[in-house]
Amino acid sequence: MEIDRLTAAGPTAVSIALKVNGVERRLEVPPSVTLLDLLRERLDLTGSKKGCDQGQCGACTVLVNGRRVNACLQLAVMNDGAEITTIEGVGQPGALHPLQEAFIAHDAFQCGYCTPGQICSAIGMMNEGHAKTEAEIRELMSGNLCRCGAYGNIVDAIEDVMGRSAFKEAAE
Amino acid sequence: MSNIHPYVGRATSRVDGPLKVSGLAQYAAEFGAPDLAYAAAVPSAIAKGRVTSLDVSAARAAPGVIDVLSHENKLAFPEDDEPFKNDMVAVPGSPFRPFRDDQVHYSGQAIALVVADTHENARHAATLVRATYAAETPNVDVASAANHYEPPEPRDGIPPTPEPRGDAAGAFAAAPVQVTADYRVVAEHHNPMELQATTVVWEGDGRLLIHNKTQGVVNPKNYICSVFGLDEDKVRLVSPFVGGAFGMALRPHYDVFLAVMASLKLQRSIRLVLTRGQMFTMGWRPDCLQTVSFGADAGGRLTSIQHHAIQATSRYEDYQEPIVNWSGFLYDCDNVALKYELGKVDTPTPSDMRAPGATTGVFALECAMDELAYAAKVDPVELRLMNYSDRDKNDDKPFSSKELREAYRLGAERFGWSKRSPEPRSMREGRELIGYGMATGCWEAMTMPHKARATLTADGKLEVGCATADIGTGTYTILAQIAADALGLDIAEVTSRVGDTSLPMAPVEGGSWAAASAGSAVKSACETLKDELLKRARGIDGSPLANAGLDHVVFGNGRIALASDPAKAVSFADVLKGAGLDKLEADGGFEPDKDFAQTYAGYTHAACFVEVRVDEDLGVVRLARVVSAVAAGKILNPLTARSQILGGVVMGCGMALHEETLWDKTLGRVMNANLGEYHVPAHADIPDIDVVFVDEEDGSNPLGVKGLGEIGIVGTAAAVANAIFHATGKRVRELPITIDKLL
Question: Touching check for A20 and chain B: CB below 8 Å?
Fold first, then answer.
């Protein structure tokens, strides 16, 4: 197990254990640190984006124990013992997740800033199993804003992956 | 291999796609540095007046705080305006300078900067700064501005308001059909997903490596060197990825200014990320009041056009847009009077936001055209065809190309416009009223001077680069496509680089000029590289190409071959080896064709068709579908091109139905400075959008490209408003068209 001593942990730092993208980490974290800032500023996982820092845009969406969560609305210390998957853990170039590949194929982004959150959110949505139609996908993805307006392509990418039987089985 | 070329014109996946979908694309706030300190800006609590005292003692005493900067202990910078006008996008007036003095010009203005060891400590300490103020009453409403005036000094880089022609007032008075209406386009903020941010890496010896959210690294570099008197050799900006901008990151903002100031003062690396609320303390699309009057003959042929606009600007600068110009050439009319005025408000200076001027002005023009269609009892598409202009009468020039007629035809056909019954409220399904509306879009086709470099290495790989930005538009990809075609390479062998001041000079990426300008510069660099390669290939002992000119050879598969006998070839690797080089570099450039620009008027055009469904009882508007038919010259990459139009259309839908920055008129403060209350379109708001590109040949640049970043938004809001009128019979002339305006 990797032991991280974080800078400026301070006297009030709390000891937590997190499994981030499959790596067990023991961390000393001040209670005021959000999960998003822990990832971005202290663990160098900048794939999770800060777009509003108040749960309104979805750019920071990560998977906590398989459920999609706005990392900016979580304090890191609330997640002691949790398993966190960020976009870096979803897939990397050379071994991309089918949804990441579908996002490229459908041009489901322009600037790319909301993209990690869109992908993590879509995986979470598929895990939830409620979305059966295009309209339901649009509704259930509405917590993830895209100012470049790639919505139609994002929905196409998600439908593309949902339509593949392999993914359906994996989700069941 | 021949089947892979040409890439240009073919749908090509983004070359930066794998980095963006995996979180590896690094944006300005994501570069690390040893000993990095974090800054937080403290906003003013008043919109106008003076800071009378600033108590930073509690902030200084807070855990982890390194320093608190303000106008009282700032690093000295010049008093005069000129160094701050070293900004490619500066406007007439006196540029804003954070910490210049105790004056407050707008609500949320940074009055102090806290620097601490962590983000959390900086954010906390920023809440402990106490200020007292001598407040004055602000005015944030352009309608109540003390006086409206024509800008005494015109803004560089935008066309002037055209002189009147004919007798617009007389022709209007004599016209059997008259339409006069007032429109209001309200304040909007760009709200790109990425927060405005700067990371300054203190490299020692006065060297700064700056990562700043910007639409062109050269601009903030020039500005920073100018205002802080820094040696250009010691400052480098590197911003490879930009999380959306839409015009807001054209000018240098206070984040880069304050982060550099703190870095220079403390001699350490600094990160400053603004908050979403602070994204409302910089450029915005200004409020604009407009009156359009049309006179027409009984059949709808325009005999008079008058368009008057009054737009907001800040107290300290005269920001300007071409609002009314479009009314002078989009339709054929000999009696035209256009007037553009400003009104001062106590806000930050507005800034270009996607199709600045056109988005606002064409909204009014195209809604008024719809009103005229009903007044003259002519189909809206027919009305536009009847008044079609074949010449830009503002400047009395022919168009370089204008396939707008075909855009109307194709768009109407794809949309099924012929199924529209003309009367308002005449189409419905259940509780929903159905409306079909359309509008024209128009934007300038511009180019800018640009440089680029192409470098071939011994392993056969090609790198092309220039200091432009890819703000999501697909610049990386089109540059790679152009370069791959030029040298006959697989696109996987080509790397494109942008967003670095060590690369050849580029203007800011804006105005839809990047593809034409950067693309042409890269093409030119590649042509020079080919020339240099062939020269060296000919010089190799016993070269099979000894007497061949560029016309006699083919570049492909990493070789130069004789066109007449492809077996006779020299590989790129052998050329470099023969010349004793590990790489071969060539510079290229592009200069706008001045003769062409003097002869022709260059514009992109679009025809936008919208279907809305309006709940008759509740007034809820649902967009059902949009067709946007675009004539914009050569399309380099249909995949990314379509995305650009989608983005423009979506922003236009937001403008029509959702977006409005609401200032409290007493406090002068934005009341909805967040993404919960400033509603940008979400997934469920946006319907199917069908994008059609019309074939169009244009000669303004070697690529035949006219640009796509803006045209998608222009006309969209008018098409939505016109569809809502058709559905409901209610003409809403003030955006956004919210439920309360329909009930």
Answer: no
* Token reading at B83: 């160094």
d(CA A87, CA A98) in angstroms, rounded, equals: 13
Average pLDDT over residues B228-257: 98
Question: For the stretch B697-725, what's the b/e string if a residue is b when 16 or more beta carbons lie within 10 angstroms of its beta carbon?
Answer: ebebbbbbbbbbbbbbbbbbbbbbbbbbb
Radius of gyration, CA atoms only, chain A: 16
B609-663 pLDDT tens trace = 999 999 999 999 999 999 999 999 999 999 999 999 999 999 999 999 999 999 9
Measured at the CA of B412, the angle between CA B410 and CA B417, to 5 degrees, comes to 160
Task: Tell me how far apart the alpha carbons of residues B491 and B17 are, in angstroms, rounded to a whole number.
Answer: 14
Mean pLDDT by 10 residues, chain A (172 residues): 41 91 96 97 97 98 98 97 98 98 98 98 96 95 98 97 66 48
Distance CA B29, CA B32 (A): 8
Q: Which two tokens stand for residue B625?
A: 């579908």
Of all residues in chain B, what percent carry a pLDDT higher than 70?
100
CA–CA separation, B606 and B407 (whole Å)? 6
Please list, in sequence order, all residues whose beta carbon lies within 8 angstroms of the beta carbon of residue B721, skipping any fewer than 6 positions away.
B363, B367, B370, B437, B656, B732, B733, B735, B737
Whether B599 contacts B454, CB under 8 Å: no
Going by the DSSP 8-state scheme, the letter that residue B241 receives in this structure is: -
**Two tokens at B118?**
């962590």
Which chain A positions have a beta carbon within 8 Å of B246's beta carbon?
147
The secondary structure of residue B729, as a DSSP letter, is S
Mean pLDDT of chain B: 97
For the segment B518-577, what is each residue's pLDDT rounded down to a tens digit? 999 999 999 999 999 999 999 998 999 998 999 999 999 999 999 999 999 999 999 999
Find the CB nearest B30 among A46, A101, A111. A46
Pairing of strands B37-43, B270-273: parallel
Q: Which domains does chain A carry?
A: 2-90 (3.10.20.30), 98-171 (1.10.150.120)
Which among A53, A86, A87, A111 is the top mutation candidate for probing chain B, defined by the most B β-carbons within 10 Å of its own β-carbon? A111
Q: Which of B245, B291, B648 is nearest to B442 (CA)?
A: B648
Q: Do A100 and B13 touch (CB under 8 A)?
A: no
Distance CA B709, CA B471 (A): 10
Rounded CA separation B15/B1 (Å)? 19
d(CA B390, CA B332): 8
Yes or no, beta carbons of B675 and A52 under 8 Å apart: yes
Calpha distance A76→A14 (Å, rounded) = 10
- Where do the domains of chain B lie, and which CATH numbers do they carry? 2-24+448-591 (3.30.365.10), 31-136+192-275 (3.90.1170.50), 149-188+284-446+598-742 (3.30.365.10)
The pLDDT of B263-276, averaged and rounded, is 98
Of the candidates B268, B270, B117, which has an alpha carbon nearest to the alpha carbon of residue B206? B268
CB pairs under 8 A between A and B: 193
Token code pair at residue B193 = 């997903």
Cα-based angle B631, B637, B642 (whole degrees, multiple of 5): 60
Q: What is the pLDDT of residues B62-104, one digit of tens each?
A: 999 999 999 999 999 999 999 999 999 999 999 999 999 999 9
Residues from chain B contacting residue A90 (CB–CB below 8 Å): 22
pTM for this prediction: 0.97
| Complex ipTM | 0.97
Active site residue B710: yes
Q: Write the pLDDT tens digit of every residue in B129-180.
A: 999 999 999 999 999 998 999 999 999 999 999 999 999 999 999 999 999 9
Task: Give the separation between CA A92 and CA A78, rounded to whole angstroms.
Answer: 28
